[in-house]
Structure formats: structure tokens, C-alpha cells
Amino acid sequence: MDSLLDNAIMSIQLGLEDHASPDKRRVISAARNLYAGVLLLCKEVLRRLSPPNSNDILIRTRTRAIRGADGIVCLVGSGNKTIDRTQIEEVFRQLAVAVDLSKLRRLAEIRNDIEHMHPNVGPALIQEAIADAMPIIRTIIVNELQEEPGDLLGPEAWAALLDEARVFKAEQDACRESLGSVGWGSEALASAVSEFRCPNCTSTLIRNGNPAAAQVGELQLICSKCGEEADPDGVVEEALNRALEWDSYIAAKEGLEPALDECPECGKHTFVLGENRCVNCNFSIRGYECFVCSEPLTLDEYRFGDGKLCSYHENVLSKDD
């Protein structure tokens, strides 16, 4: 077995052993080892995909050019520093590697939350980390490494991964079902439900304690992990920011309006530009137009003006004064 793969398997096994330990102090090392193990597995995939004699170029942060005896110039990996999580995700996308890394960022967040807020959040989050790691681990081992998970990880470690993921999935399904009767009234908000987090322990196991809730304002959100009740407005605002983070990033790069902005009426960061309304208070700027030219007002024109003039005619009239 290769040393990189050796280290990956060892890290995952140690993470599971740390989690099973009665010593609650080991929850931090459980998160660190599990996260490191998943990253190392990803790097093993890229190491194997690297061209022969390239010094594992796909996992190196630096490259250098060399000229072979035949005069052909090629690039090879240089130094010992290897790529990080975001670079791994990018290379996987470029190479169309059939591994879903969508939960990798959440794994990193959980590791960070446990390190920064332990012991308050550690026990609540480590099971979620294992559940998020399991499908990535399985897909890489089976599809990319052509191995059996039980053989590579050992039967005890693989059984522990399956058990923890199964328990978490059952509770997650129950939480999602409790939110199923709510009419979100917004495509963006409906897609953000999976990003609901507990403000106390950051777990995603948020359930609705009011079966009669038919709209957002009637929700009673309770964390199934720590038992704390959460303010729906705050949970929704943070969830929207996470769900639309990538869209806002792309918009900023292209000089466009952000996907999400502050609502000028309620002050929450819940105004969805794509829907032209606030999903918190339902305020919309539809129907607001310039009194002079009849052009629809933008959000900023409404926010910083009097709701009657576009920025151009606001400027023209101010000069006339």
C-alpha cells in the first residue's frame, strides 16, 4: 500500500477510535483525523491520475519545467507542499472525477466549529461529520481505488462508519419531514432549508416543533442535538447566505448585483435579487418606477432615494436645486 493511502486509512481509523473513546477531550482529534483522512484519500486519487514520472504533479502546489534527454520539455511537481481542499475540489471538477465533494466544505466547517467551540459543540457535530464523510470515503474506495471498504478500512471501522451515518440519516430525515408542510413561497428559501443550522451548536438537525406551521413566520425551530430553540428569522437569514454564497461570488466577479442583499424595509439580509423581493417580510420593489422616465427602480435607488426617482433623474434634479 502507498504511504499516502496508508496515512489516509490510519487517519480515518484513528478518527473513529477517538469518537468512540469515553474521553470527551478526544472529540477534537476525532474531527481532525477524520477530515485529514478524507483529504488524503482525495489526494491519493489525484496521485494515481498524475502522469508517470511527473512527481505526482496533480497534488503539488508548485511545478517546474524540465527538459528530457529527447529534448521534450514537460512540467513536473516541485517541492513537498500539496494542494488544499478548495484546490482538490477544483482539480476534481476539471478532471470530471466522479466523486461528489459537495459535503467536503461542511466537513471543514465542522472541524473548525469543534476546534473553536469545544466542548460545547463537539459531541453534537462529530456524528454529522462521520455521516458527511462516509459517502465520499465509500465512493473513492469503491469507484476510484477499486477496493472494498471493509477490506481497506477494516471491518470494525467500516461498520462504525455505516452505523453512525445510518443513525444521523434517520434523524435528518425526521427533521426534514417536520418542515415538509411549510409553504416557503420562494424557490431560494426552499433550497436553503438544507442549510438550516443551530445557532448554538451549528448542527443541521433542525426540526419544526409546530406541526400546524404553514409558513415561515409560524415555525418553531428546535435543535435535535442540543435541544435549544432557535430564532427562525436568524436561521433563515444565515441559511440564505450559505445557499446563495456561490451565486453572489460569481456575481461579484462579473460585476453584477449580488444574489442576496439587505432588505430596505426589515433590515434583514434576505432580499433575493433573482426573485426581486424579501423572503422575510415579502417586500418587493415591483411597481416602483421613476416618476420622470417610468424606468423601474433598482433596489439601491429605492434604498437611497425617496422611492420616486431613478438615480439619473435624482442627480439631475439635485443639480437644478
Care to describe what's here?
The protein is mostly helical. It has 3 domains: 3-56 and 82-174; 176-245, no CATH class; 254-320, Cysteine Rich Protein (Ribbon), CATH 2.10.110. It is 50% helix and 10% strand. It has helices spanning 3-20, 27-49, 85-95, 104-117, 122-144, 149-153, 155-178, 187-192, 232-243, 245-253, 299-304, 311-320; strands at residues 60-67, 73-82, 206-208, 221-223, 229-230, 260-261, 271-272, 277-278. The strands form 3 sheets. It has a 3-stranded antiparallel beta sheet. Strand 1 and strand 2 form a beta hairpin. Helix 2 runs parallel beside helix 5 (122-144). The longest helix is centred in the middle third of the chain and has 24 residues, at 155-178. The mean pLDDT is 90.
Order of adjacent strands in the largest pleated sheet: 3-4-5
Note the run of SSEs as H and E. HHEEHHHHHHEEEHHEEEHH
Helix content range of the residues, please?
A: 40-55%
Q: Could you give a short account of the major beta sheet?
A: 3 strands, antiparallel
Q: What best-fitting shape do the alpha-carbon axes yield?
A: flat
The helix-and-strand class reads: mainly alpha
Enumerate how many helices there are, as a single number.
12
Return residue spans where pLDDT drops below 50 for at least 5 consecutive residues.
none
Number of strands: 8
Number of domains: 3
Radius of gyration: 25 Å
Mean pLDDT: 90
Query: What is the distance, rounded to the nearest whole angstrom, between the alpha carbons of the first and last residues?
Result: 80 Å
**Strand content range:** 5-15%
